[in-house]
Amino acid sequence: LEIFKNRKMLFITKIGGIMLHGETVVLTDMLDCRERRSKKQEEYRNKYQTVIISFCMNIPGPIKTNSDITKVFQSGVQDIFAFLQSSNIKILESVEYNEKTGNELILALDCTDSKFIKNAMTYIEETHPVGRLFDIDVISPDGVKMSRNVFRKCFICDCQAQDCASIRKHSVSEMQEYIDSKIKEYLKLNK
């Protein structure tokens, strides 16, 4: 893995007539990304003692972003900002990353009601046309990652996502094909 760590690779695969493209990531890239995210969340929490929103996309496989995924991510960002504005919740500090490891937004809010924020973020995940691809974490002022009230459903079937993942019920290529078709469908309707 170390040999490939700094090499940029373009991955293009054809699955069922659908083209998935983008720069591939390896495990070390994702571990570095998670560590950076965790440090930024901790920095904001220590600095502000407030609720943190951490938003990224739930994209399986070696390609975590491309121009279409970024457009969908930005639609989620718009929904989050619209909710915060309509609720008169100020953003104390924020950072957005758009790298090969995926799109991320981390916000420190002028709010300490983590349950209220988690319910609102779950609502966005559940009601946005491609919200199933959104991974919006809410971290309380005391550092607890808030849980959802309901389990997430699988991308492909109506089973609980954790159950499908634990037994690898669906292949990565099957999930990618489904995700790619949903993204293309959403973008076509929302030009």
Folded structure, characterized:
The structure is a single chain. The chain is built from five helices and six strands; from the N terminus they run E-E-H-E-H-E-E-H-E-H-H. The chain has about 190 residues and is an alpha+beta fold. Strands 4-5-3-6 form a four-stranded antiparallel β-sheet, with helices on both faces. Strand 1 and strand 2 form a beta hairpin. The chain starts with 9 loop residues before the first strand and ends with a helix. About 25% of the residues are buried.
Descriptive terms for the model:
191 residues, 21% strand, two-stranded antiparallel ribbon, single chain, alpha+beta, 6 strands
Topology at a glance:
Layout: E1 10-15, E2 18-23, H1 27-48, E3 52-57, H2 67-86, E4 91-99, E5 102-109, H3 114-127, E6 134-139, H4 161-167, H5 172-189
Antiparallel strand pairs: 1-2, 3-5, 3-6, 4-5
Helix pairs in contact: 2-5
Number of strands: 6
Number of H- or I-type helical stretches:
5
Side by side, the strands of the main sheet go 4-5-3-6
Helix % is 40-55%
Strand percentage lies at 15-25%
Give a quick rundown of the structure.
With 191 residues, the chain is an alpha+beta fold. The protein is 42% helix and 21% strand.
